[in-house]
Design a protein that fits this description.
about 325 residues; Aminoglycoside 3'-phosphotransferase, Chain: A, domain 2; homodimer; five-stranded antiparallel sheet; alpha+beta; two-stranded antiparallel ribbon; Phosphorylase Kinase, domain 1; 2 domains
């Protein structure tokens, strides 16, 4: 649920005057996304999304994100496109926040994932990885493997409030993950957050990808591992290997993984689980009561991580 | 912020198949409103709002609300119109909740109220009161004066957690309000919740009214008092008499108030303040941590009520 910053009508009017996108028809907060404030903006010309970047996003990264989205579109990926103001700038300031208008993408994200979604998601992820290959600028993944130990330290003292001995379990798991973390896998630009609410479908076809604000340069296979975490577990946290197989087959039909990438899947999946576990844990112990955001349960990723620790090899995922 | 009920894509598709409104293009949760779940629904034909009615709304009242909205539109009031499904029904069931699709209203609600908004709001409220006059069915105002004592009882024991001696202050204020509550004032159908986020403007003109789910049959002048509370206080809870005068002049240009109505304004305003104070207080002491809703501070209405208690007569409001 995300509208952290309210925009006054005068400020909005002044902001829109800088664009050549028609005059305003409607402006409504969108109850989706958790990092930024998103508004649906309708003008006499078209529908748009107005995003105000909140404190977790480093403004220095914004040109990279917007540049990546523009690059991907030129390579055939359907994703929101930054709309440039009359002065040629896509990145501006509104209500004291960095802000951008992007194009509106038709589609609906799947509230309940079915096997039929997973193949297209895998294929779209592979397509994204190939399309990004010739986007030269790199962005360090602040929430990649090097960031996890410092992140755990920031919540460690209070982890046991959520479940007894959780701090110790996370210590052990993280030590194992970092000790087994692969080297030398193919790198590229990854979405890093391709959860169901960032993938739109229309008439049973994948219609677009959104929310590139965690994108970074990292192992491509790690992005696959994030998707396995995001798309292939059931509500009881059991792993649905049919979904895993569909996702991996969809991916490999477009970009076959190397033997080293496939072999690394269990540890990459454990990494993917602990990454979301750690940010949720941090939010859980640091979100003030009454904040306009729903805290998500970190334990959902403890459950996933336990599955990954039981995975003997990549075949556990349906390969 | 309001999306309490998630709708699966299959359920939504099956639901829309019952309507003749084109096929789906987009479906996004709206971060506005606090009582129901609202989605923005775009089809190949038009934009709509899909509302799922949550537990505070009595399903038995829904036909009255939808009927009032239809009636008001025939009398020239711009408000959302229920869209009937192929079977002629506007009220249906989705995801286990009562649900309705209504038309999309262009406009933007004023995040910062200016004096220029207040006249049109007063005029629109008076227009609503006149337009509702020949809508025969009545609806008892559960949150009207008879409901306040029971509502206070439900939070009384915990009121002092918010501020020392708040329970005693509310007891005294409510006793005074009920003792001075007028009788015999003109009645009709009132909106009862005409706050800025329920009034849209476009190009500096009022473009429509939304959210009729607190509407009821009660004193018309009480609705004016609610608006004085909602539109005419500044951020520091000082009363802006210029805004009050604009709102009352706008109202009386369309429907002049009787001497009895005008004289009752101070007590009606105290009633309007305590009504929102009491529901906020109830929510404050009863909202579980982590709920997807922002608790609003009851003290904002204690501050308003104190102003109203200081008002000697209707002239305090700019009449």
């Amino acid at each position: 649920m995300a509208v952290y910053t309210e925009v006054t009508d005068e400020a909005l009017e002044a902001f829109l005057a800088g664009y050549d996108i028609g005059s305003m028809v409607a402006f409504r907060g969108i109850a989706e996304g958790v990092e930024n404030s998103n508004y649906s903006l309708k003008t006499t010309a078209a529908d748009f999304i107005l995003t105000l970047y909140e404190k977790r996003v480093d403004p220095a990264d914004l040109p990279w994100f917007l540049g990546l989205m523009e690059h991907l579109a030129t390579r055939g990926i359907t994703c929101p496109q930054p709309v440039r103001a009359r002065d040629g700038e896509a990145l501006r300031v509104l209500a004291g926040k960095h802000a951008a208008i992007t194009t509106f993408l038709p589609g609906v994200w799947p509230r309940r994932v079915r096997v039929e979604h997973c193949g297209p998601v895998g294929a779209a992820l592979a397509g994204l990885h190939l399309a990004g290959a010739d986007f030269a600028p790199r962005r360090v993944n602040a929430l990649g493997s090097h960031g996890w130990r410092p992140l755990l330290e920031r919540s460690h003292a209070r982890a046991d409030e959520i479940q007894p001995d959780l701090a110790a379990e996370l210590d052990t798991a993280l030590t194992e993950i970092l000790a087994g973390w692969p080297t030398g896998l193919p790198e590229g630009h990854i979405h890093a957050d391709l959860f169901p609410d960032n993938v739109f479908f229309l008439d049973n076809r994948l219609s677009g990808l959104i929310d590139f604000y965690f994108a970074a340069t990292d192992f491509l296979a790690y992005d696959v591992a994030v998707c396995l975490n995001a798309w292939c577990f059931e509500a009881d946290f059991s792993f649905n290997v049919t979904k895993g197989r569909a996702l991996l087959s969809g991916y490999q039909a477009i970009r076959p993984m190397s033997a080293a990438e496939r072999a690394a899947l269990p540890v990459l999946c454990r990494g993917g689980a602990i990454r979301f576990l750690l940010t949720r844990l941090f939010d859980w112990v640091n979100t003030p009561d009454g904040a306009m955001v729903t805290r998500k349960d970190p334990m959902e990723y403890v459950r996933r991580m336990r599955f990954h620790r039981s995975a003997r090899d990549e075949h556990a995922y349906g390969i």
